[in-house]
Amino acid sequence: MMTATGVSSAASLSSAATNRRISKIRAKFRPTHPCGSKTIEALSSVATAAVENESASFGRRGMLSVTTIPFFLNLHESLAGFHADAAEPFRDYFLVKEEVKKVLSKGKAAGVLRLVFHDAGTFEIEDNAGGMNGSIVYELDRPENTGLQKSLKILGKAKAEVDMMIQPVSWADMIAVAGAEAVSVCGGPNIPLQLGRIDSMVPDPEGKLPQESLDASGLKRCFQRKGFSTQELVALSGAHTLGSKGFGNPISFDNAYFKILLEKPWSSSAGMSSMIGLPTDRALVEDGECFRWISMYANNQDLFFEDFKNVYIKLVNTGAMWKPSL
Predict the structure, then answer these.
(1) Are the C-beta atoms of residues 85 and 326 closer than 8 Å to each other?
(2) Helix (H) or strand (E) holding 65
(3) pLDDT for 16 beyond 50
(4) Which pLDDT band holds residue 246 (cuts at 50, 70, 90)?
(5) Three-state DSSP class for 154?
(6) Which of 237, 297, 240, 285 is nearest to 261 (CA)?
(7) Residues facing 129 on adjacent strands
């Protein structure tokens, strides 16, 4: 017969064993990627199974610790709450990214990125209007938006798939994510974004996009009205490295744009050199403040990538209307 002292010692040993088991389970199943719904569901299942296993194990010895069940029940409840409140937006975001990747190729990247600039570029601080709001779908007949209908049609295929799988995604979100993917698929930086932008039901006012005929001073004033510095203007202009403007490989996102600007190939009348770039591109390199950033990005692609990533996020967030947080 076990004495009272023996029972006390056995209970202490059992409690210690329980704590060791809990520590092992905590360490083994600590989330390594808080965004994955599969991870959270697996953790929730593990918590339930762990309670059952612990109960059976200690039941055979008649020494179930009263501290074990509350811990796992709380873990299960907290994980379930995390999954519902936090993981779902991440799930939607990655779903949008995956559907965009299915319809996007390097050859289509420049057009998709142009779509972003023409939708988001209408914002101005004084009016507090415009920005990334999907209004571009009503503005395709404007001269400055010629050719963008094709890019919008490409994204429409991805949007239709997303709309069937989850709640409908806004055009503003779809275009913002697609632009980021266009940069990434061509070798540029990964640009993380959040969803929740609300679409406008009407077109933005005309005449808000930067004019191709502006000189550097005019460009800087235009971007200042939109809340962007000279450094941000130059970084955003680096997107012209994609496409048929003559800045290196048309499907490679790199710092070739800045290197070629420094060479000023349009100064030569030989061949097609005079056709490289837009008037606004050529104007940037003639401005001292812009020239300083052009030189920095030409010599440091990593710096350009980091600055472009940051200003792209600012571009697609500035002026956007957002769904209320839950």
Answers:
(1) yes
(2) none
(3) no
(4) confident
(5) helix
(6) 285
(7) 124
Tokens of 76: 């299960």
The angle subtended at Cα 229 by Cα 223 and Cα 227, nearest 5°, is: 55
Give the pair of three-digit tokens for residue 141: 């007949």
The active-site residue, picked from 33, 76, 83, 118, is 118
Please write down the HEC assignment for all residues of the chain: CCCHHHHHHHHHHHHHHHHHHHHHHHHHCCCCCCCCHHHHHHHHHHHHHHHHHHHHHHHHHCCCCCCHHHHHHHHHHHHHHHHHHHHHHHHHHHHHHHHHHHHCCHHHHHHHHHHHHHHHCCCECCCCECCCCCHHHHCCCCHHHCCHHHHHHHHHHHHHHHHHHCCCCCHHHHHHHHHHHHHHHCCCCCCCCCCCECCCCCCCCCCCCCCCCCCHHHHHHHHHHCCCCHHHHHHHHHHHHCCCCCCCCCCCCCCHHHHHHHHCHHHCCCCCHHHCCCHHHHHHCCCHHHHHHHHHHHHCHHHHHHHHHHHHHHHHHCCCCECCCC
Look at residues 147, 304, 149 and name the one whose alpha carbon lies nearest to residue 239: 304
Q: Which of 235, 218, 209 is nearest to 283 (CA)?
A: 218
Each residue of 106-138: pLDDT tens digit?
999 999 999 999 999 999 999 989 999 999 999
Reply yes or no on whether 118 is catalytic. yes
Is the pLDDT confidence value at 250 over 90?
A: yes
Decide: pTM greater than 0.85. no
